[in-house]
Amino acid sequence: MNCQQAQTWILQSEAPAATPALLAEHLRSCGHCKSVHDQLLTLERQLQTAPLPGMPLHLKNALMESLVPVAQATVVTRSTAIVRRRRRMRSEHVVGYTVAAAASVVVGVVLGYALAGRDTTPVAHTPNTPTAPIHKPAPAVAVKPKPEKAVATIGPSETLVQPSEVISSTNTLTRPAPSTTVVETPVPMVDPEVTSPSVAPRPATENKSPLANAKFLTDDELLAQLIENHTDLSSVVQPADRLARLAALSDVIWTQAIKESQAGGMSNVPWLEDAYAGIVEIDLPAIAKELSPDDQAKAEALAVTLEERGAEVGRLLADAPPTTSRVFKQLQSVAQSGAQKLVKKGRDPLTRRPRLSGGSSTLLPLIVEQTSALARESNPLERADHSTALAEGLAKDILVTALRGEEDRAAALGQHFGKVLEQGVVVNLQRLDPKTATYQQSRRYQQVVARTQNSIVFLQQSLEAAPPAARGGLERAMQQGGLAELVPPPGPKRRVWIWNPKHLEHLKRWLEHELEDAR
Amino acid sequence: MIDISDEELARRAQAGDRPAFGALIDRYWPRVFRWLVGLTRSTQLAEDIAQDTFLKAWKGIAAFAPETSFRAWVFRIAHNGLIDHQRRERPTINVDAWEEQVGPEAVPLNNVVHEETRAMITAACARLPVSVREAFMLRTQEGLSFAEIALALSSTEETVRWRVHKARQHLLKELGAYLSPQGEQDRVSR
Fold first, then answer.
1. Do residues B18 and B61 lie in contact, with contact meaning Cβ atoms separated by under 8 Å?
2. Which of A18, A38, A137, A245 has the greatest number of CB atoms lying within 10 Å of its CB?
């Protein structure tokens, strides 16, 4: 046997460890082939001795539960199998043609929607899971309505992160709750007390216009106010409460649109108008449909309030210049239309909302969009996801702000970031009842947690890769957000997937590019 | 049920014995899962496909011929599940997934070296084409014969043999220095 024959045998053998006599003789005389043989054995031994992952017990239980009894009579013979396959092929052809025809229609519809504006109605999550329902109970979770401390984990996104891990665990790090920013807020139009069961219009003293005490808010003040509205909405689940909180947000937007128009600064007005229309004409009526018969009076009270808002902005029209009067007319029309829709019975409200964009900041419309979507949502996981989307937007803004060297603003944004995580994401994740959680819910839970972790890691990596000019702002943002103390839990293998040198390099290049732009 | 053969358990499962099928799940879920992680690089996706595999196996257990290899059959279902997924969606890439499946338990120093070697092997395996990798992992890690692999991958024994050959050739070329006993000694002494 020569070397070529020996190595071909080694590499093609089903069991390289069992050497036939001829090969053994060659290996004794040839150091190179012996080395190849040894290396292959080492390679295969390493792979064979790799630890086998255990099957999580809850997964096994869930799988066993989902094994429905099989029909014992279904003995498949070759002939029946062939017949079935032919039937399937025939039906697949029919389905294929049908799908092709339907697809062209769908593409047209989707394009139409895309051109008209984005539908922000939350879409049901359809993970890649078996069609059979698999129940995966989540572990016990300590539900704390107002946690003193919020804890975030940085574990592997693929590992099942359980509710208890997010709240407290020895492997996680606890950070103090960031202090709440006190913001001068316009008087909300409707609060839980105001939306009383009474159908009759409220006394004038109770129904103060938000315009009375309001002032024009700067972008940063508006941002703080909107974050306040978002976290406020995160804390309530009942339709009546969501209706009241969203109405309060509509008041903020209404007031700001009027004040900004009057001040002559029109950059945010277009999206504020759209946001107001979306909330008043679509979201509020949709939530009103969820109200129980006992709470219907609250929708009627809100309708009265909206009528009053319309009338109030109508009164401002007399002294308004042409550009402002267009805005006022629009607000008036929306308020009146929303009032009618709130009390209209039967027909479902529209679900499409205009996409909010433009203005002086991309973050402000994002907050309103996510807050409106949050208000429409009753599923705690989807609610948490809306807060996560907001946290992502904040993280990006923190970075850009830090790159511009605006340390104070970056710190304020960091504080908002921490607040959204704590009062938006964590609070809603805690609402998942582990006893009734299905497999898909647990999956969705993991996705939301992973998404949140990634936004935290994004900031941490940014700090690591940031040029000196941006470091101060980022450090302060992390500190204010309570993220500075967060480090990955021990163990070299428990990492978030984004924690990767390649991503870091990419991020560094991106940061340099952004810094150039900022300069 | 530890001593009962796969085929006997499968026969019982065909008669509606769920605990027998549970024993098969215990036996093969970790192997199917590990193999899928190696191919998809995503524990989440691997878990989904593994779950789906065993649900399909249960639904189709009546079609299983007990005189054939159960493990080849179950890997074939998993393979088909993976292909279905790839047709539906873009492949998921998760560079750390392989490492994450193993817990962070403390290990002695020389084990750390083995872990390091294994991590390098894993990374090198990840660079193999999927068709080569799936055959190689089934042979090396899961211990399937070439005939069983051919059955699982809907291929021929010769093709499987060729793929395993290519995988070994490639890995030895890439990792040869690390795999020699001297190389390991040097790394331990460091």
1. no
2. A245
CA-based nearest distance A74→chain B, Å:
7
Q: A225 pLDDT exceeds 70? A: yes
Count Cβ atoms below 10 Å from residue A207 Cβ, excluding itself: 16
Inter-chain CB proximity A60 and B102 less than 8 Å: no
Whether pTM > 0.80 for this model: the answer is no
- Secondary structure class of A292 (helix, strand, coil): coil
Rounded to whole angstroms, the Cα distance separating A190 from A178 reads 28
Per-residue pLDDT tens over the stretch A239-269 = 999 999 999 999 999 999 988 888 776 678 8
Check CB contact under 8 Å for A39 and B168. no
The residue written with tokens 């941006």 in the block is: A470
Return d(Cα A152, Cα A427) in angstroms, integer.
12
pLDDT tier at B135, thresholds 50, 70, 90: very high
Cα–Cα distance between A127 and B14 in angstroms, integer?
Answer: 30
The answer to whether residues A336 and A307 touch, using CB atoms and an 8 Å cutoff, is: yes
Nearest CA in chain B to A48: B141
Best CA proximity match to A67, nearest among B59, B11, B63 = B59
- Please indicate if any CB of chain B lies within 8 Å of the CB of A96: no
Q: How far is A340 from chain B (nearest CA, A)?
A: 45
A92–B contact, CB cutoff 8 A: no
Q: What tens digit of pLDDT does each residue of A416-426 get? A: 888 888 888 88
Cα–Cα separations (whole angstroms), residue A249 to A210, A232, A246, B46, B83: 11, 10, 5, 43, 48
Q: Give which of A227, A245, A279, A240 is closest to A412, Cα–Cα.
A: A227
**Residue A507: closest CA among A399, A434, A406:** A399
Residues of B with Cβ-Cβ distance to A442 under 8 angstroms: none
Number of Cβ pairs closer than 8 Å across A and B?
163
Question: What would the mean pLDDT of B95-107 be, rounded to a whole number?
Answer: 33
Please indicate whether, in this complex, the C-beta atoms of A493 and B104 are within 8 angstroms of each other: yes
pLDDT value for B102:
33
B-chain residues within 8 Å CB-CB of A132? 55
Q: What is the helix (H) or strand (E) element at residue A152, kind and residue range?
A: strand A149-152
Indicate whether A170 pLDDT > 60: no
Q: What is the mean pLDDT of residues A481-489?
A: 57
Name the residue facing A490 among B30, B104, B179 (closest C-beta).
B104
| Shortest Cα–Cα distance, B73 to chain A (Å) | 16
By C-alpha distance, the chain A residue nearest B28 is A55
**What are the phi and psi torsion angles at A509 (to 5°)?**
-65, -40
Report residue A53 as tokens: 């992952």
Interface of A with B in 122-151 (CB under 8 A): 127-130, 132, 134
Contacts of A118 (CB under 8 A, 6+ apart): A353, A355
User: Which residues of chain B neighbour A59 with C-beta distances below 8 Å?
Assistant: 47, 51
Residue B173: both structure tokens together: 């070329």
Tokens for B179?
Answer: 């795999």
Inter-chain CB proximity B103 and A75 less than 8 Å: no
